[in-house]
């Protein structure tokens, strides 16, 4: 039997091993930095060695920050604990609060629009989850099943029973895929649309579904690799948007009312209304003109249900022939005024297509009123107008205004027309490509820290300051989708670029609450958000809103300057979050750091301490 070695000798060898490993790590870190700088040779060899000696995977790596003034978590003063809200606020939507809404006019659905609380009425507490809350089912099972405890609202199971919207079965809701216009399921309905609209070749990628219900149309379109922004108000159909997001389908609370939709011009490849009850002919056709604004040249508009083909259906709709005939006639007139081409009418479905440019329309007898404003997409809280947003100019009559369509996923990384045409000052094709490269590197670093990013654990993801959409592009997968948010105070408005890439997003001001229910996102990415909003609004309000919309056990990734993140970390220690600060991928000398956070699981009635352990 071999003798055991001397313990002192073992300690000496162990110490020597640590020094050798540390030395190798430092050496290859410097070597890697040198070869990445452009001066080093033998890039492939250095890259191979770096991967084989990747110090980031060592289990004992210290992820604490090593840059700045040496301020650590232990140097921060006592934590200010933020208390839970009462159970009255489990489904609280601050800017669509039902009680506040009733104080506003019903004309043009103004009372269903955003009405945020004044500063003195803002909640400063943590919105709780309901008792029994569980992690949603993974996609694609979540499309068809939602745990009852997560959204315990049964009214739609009764009201929409014959239309197969939703059924209550034991401890889950089941979504058979039906809708008011497709009670037998969305698949057959989508197949009929596909006889006119090119879903299968990737040319149609982004869609807007107005009056979406529980978003079954958008849910089943995902099989065609089409992503829909589903839109519905918070009204008597309680929790329809909440159900959509619990299913893992993109949706926001919203309405076609008196203000413009929070999307850029020429954004969507198609728009859809399936018995959405929007008065399309009201206000001189203003709502159809707003759809025209957000449709790309060449985009499609689908209208199914009243008044289409009313002669065969008016009795079941409980409306008079005269009323329906007048409504369809006016819709046709407005569509002609907008120079849309009618492509299809069969049964209760009609499809129009917006012209690819305005050249064809110049000679028509009736010309619409053109909006006086420029193509600037400053639409946040701007009044909707009964006027037409001009097409982008074209150099030749056969060109597509705003650039030719590219199929998805090719368009994801192709330089968008808004950039190649130099429509966005300071953003060139090269800066776009470099942005893509940078975010691929950042996302790969995130994956090394959080192994669940690509696993399907995070279905609903939000990027609070989306830039060119490169974070979402680096993550692109059928397992997830990203809501790309363009802050209204961002230096450059690039939301149109994001849509050109085949991604979706929305304008928003983070000094206010987002248009969604609590607990609707699995992962939130906040790049430079707190530097952007410095001295604009209270960071505590932004963090409380992030907590409201994040699911229990959801994750947040902050990327910002170290001094900013230290302040953020101080606040969130009192919010039932666990945190970990790590260095920038380029090393500890970079002033930018990354803060990872995970929201703890807790439900209403649990009064445990919020302090981080």
UniProtKB/TrEMBL annotation:
Main location (coarse class): membrane
Any one cellular-component term (Gene Ontology): endosome
Record-level Gene Ontology MF annotations: methyltransferase activity
Topology in membrane: Single-pass type II membrane protein; Single-pass membrane protein
Claim: Transit peptide is one of the keywords in the record: no
EC number from the UniProt entry: 2.1.1.-
Keyword Methyltransferase: yes
A Pfam family reported for this protein in Swiss-Prot or TrEMBL: Methyltransf_29
SUPFAM superfamilies noted in UniProt: S-adenosyl-L-methionine-dependent methyltransferases
Alphabetically ordered keywords of this record: Glycoprotein, Golgi apparatus, Membrane, Methyltransferase, Signal-anchor, Transferase, Transmembrane, Transmembrane helix
Family membership: Belongs to the methyltransferase superfamily.
Protein's name according to its UniProt entry: Methyltransferase
Record organism: Trema orientale
């Amino acid at each position: 039997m071999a003798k055991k070695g001397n313990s002192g000798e073992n300690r000496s060898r162990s110490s020597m091993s640590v020094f050798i490993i540390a030395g190798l790590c430092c050496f290859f870190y410097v070597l890697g930095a040198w070869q990445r700088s452009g001066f080093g040779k033998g890039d492939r060899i250095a890259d191979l060695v770096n991967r084989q000696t990747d110090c980031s995977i060592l289990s004992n790596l210290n992820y604490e920050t090593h840059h700045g003034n040496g301020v650590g978590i232990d140097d921060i003063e006592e934590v200010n604990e933020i208390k839970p809200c009462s159970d009255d606020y489990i489904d609280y939507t601050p800017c669509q609060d039902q009680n506040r809404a009733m104080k506003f006019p019903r004309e043009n659905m103004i009372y269903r629009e955003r009405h945020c609380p004044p500063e003195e009425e803002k909640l400063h507490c943590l919105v709780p989850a309901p008792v029994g809350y569980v992690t949603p089912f993974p996609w694609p099972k979540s499309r068809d099943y939602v745990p009852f405890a997560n959204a315990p609202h049964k009214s739609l199971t009764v009201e929409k029973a014959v239309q197969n919207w939703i059924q209550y079965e034991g401890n889950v809701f089941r979504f058979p895929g039906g809708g008011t216009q497709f009670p037998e399921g969305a698949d057959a309905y989508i197949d009929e649309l596909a006889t006119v609209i090119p879903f299968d070749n990737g040319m149609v990628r982004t869609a807007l579904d107005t009056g979406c219900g529980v978003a079954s149309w958008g849910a089943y379109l995902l099989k065609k690799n089409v992503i829909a922004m589903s839109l519905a108000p918070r009204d008597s159909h309680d929790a329809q948007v909440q159900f959509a997001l619990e299913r893992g389908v993109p949706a926001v609370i919203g309405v076609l009312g008196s203000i413009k939709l929070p999307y850029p011009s020429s954004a969507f490849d198609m728009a859809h209304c399936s018995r959405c009850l929007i008065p399309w002919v009201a206000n001189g056709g203003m709502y159809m003109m707003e759809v025209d604004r957000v449709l790309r040249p060449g985009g499609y508009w689908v209208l199914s249900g009243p008044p289409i083909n009313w002669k065969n259906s008016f009795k079941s709709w409980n409306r008079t022939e005269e009323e329906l005939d007048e409504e369809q006639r006016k819709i046709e007139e407005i569509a002609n005024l907008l120079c849309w081409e009618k492509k299809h009418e069969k049964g209760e479905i009609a499809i129009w297509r917006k012209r690819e440019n305005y050249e064809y329309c110049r000679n028509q007898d009736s010309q619409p009123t053109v909006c006086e404003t420029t193509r600037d997409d400053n639409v946040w809280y701007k009044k909707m107008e009964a006027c037409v947003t001009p097409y982008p100019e074209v150099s030749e009559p056969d060109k597509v205004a705003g650039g030719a369509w590219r199929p998805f996923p090719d368009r994801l990384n192709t330089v968008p027309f808004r950039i190649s045409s130099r429509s966005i000052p300071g953003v060139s094709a090269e800066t776009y490509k470099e942005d893509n490269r940078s975010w691929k590197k950042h996302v790969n670093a995130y994956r090394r820290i959080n192994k669940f990013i690509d696993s399907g654990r995070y279905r609903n993801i939000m990027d609070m300051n989306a830039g060119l959409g490169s974070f979402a592009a680096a993550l692109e997968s059928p397992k997830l989708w990203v809501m790309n948010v363009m802050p209204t105070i961002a230096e450059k408005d690039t939301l149109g670029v994001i849509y050109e890439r085949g991604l979706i997003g929305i304008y928003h001001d983070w000094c206010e609450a987002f248009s969604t229910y609590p607990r609707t996102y699995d992962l939130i990415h906040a790049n430079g958000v707190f530097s952007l909003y410095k001295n604009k609004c209270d960071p505590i309000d932004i963090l409380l809103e992030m907590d409201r919309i994040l699911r229990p056990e959801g994750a947040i990734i902050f990327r910002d300057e170290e001094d900013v993140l230290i302040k953020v970390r101080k606040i969130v220690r009192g919010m039932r979050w666990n945190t970990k600060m790590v260095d920038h991928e380029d090393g500890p000398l970079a002033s930018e750091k990354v803060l990872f956070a995970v929201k703890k699981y807790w439900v209403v009635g649990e009064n445990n301490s919020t302090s981080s352990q």
